[in-house]
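Open question from group meeting: does this chain pack into something compact, or does most of it stay loose? Before anyone orders reagents, we agreed to write out a predicted structure and look at it together. Recording both the input and the output here so the notebook holds the full record.
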Amino acid sequence: MTAWTDSVSGQTIVVTGANSGIGYAATKAFVARGADVVLACRSIERGEAAVNQLRTDVSDGSATVLELDLADLDSIRAFVQAFETAHDELDVLCNNAGVMAIPRSETADGFETQFGVNHLGHFALTGLLLETLLETEGETRIVTQSSAVHEQGRIDFEDLHHEDSYNRWTAYSQSKLANLLFAYELQRRLDRADIEDLVSVACHPGYAATNLQKRGPEQSGSALRLWLMKAANALIAQSPEQGALPMLYAATETDVRGAYVGPDGVRNMRGHPEPQRSSDRSYDEATAERLWSVSEELTGVTYGFDGS
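Structure tokens returned:
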């Protein structure tokens, strides 16, 4: 990919989960090419440490941190208010943060945590930032990070928060399928509203070595699972910098409206970014519309354009 290298200079970009892993790698690439990046992080301390590291590593753009806990709708609203106080424009929103295969828990608002953080939190954040995205001059983008694991996902509307039965991977795959259903439905609604300057794109990193894989084993106290994850990261995974390439591509390349971008290597686990096809279930418009309605009801966030 070459076209993106200078295209972000002077842009304002928000990256959720930007203090480590793929989020940090993408943030560093954006800042190095002159962007003004807001690191949206649950931990201000870790966010500030990341900003300090960025100031050591790169100097072209700028980076600031704002607190954002995607497991708390009040925190999301507070983040949006703080962002809009400091910034008049938003060129790219990267919905990157997530949790993976953790023991069952609930968000501050009573949602199953993986569904609440990975999907509902980003659904609410995007809706609340929509006006700023629409009012920013030129083309703006919403990039939503999914996962190849979405292919095993199903949206269980009868037990959306897995209260009756919980499997950590079933819950994770549901949340990643929800990311895609949301990204595609958002683009359809933008198209129906004749909004051309705001683009929704989905992506996945393949298999990249990050802290994401460790959290589930650590929280469940499984030393064996933690060892296996570390071994797989060392032997199979690509670097966070490589894992960030699909998100960078989705955020900057031309002709990616409504696309799904991932690595082009074996089983799409590593390699260079390219537009790909996701699972058949991810293109189910009836499921997407129902999920959208449920997400509005659960979060209390509606989108300010006539794209229904």
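Observations to bring back to the group:
The longest helix spans residues 168-192.
The two ends are 35 Å apart (CA to CA).
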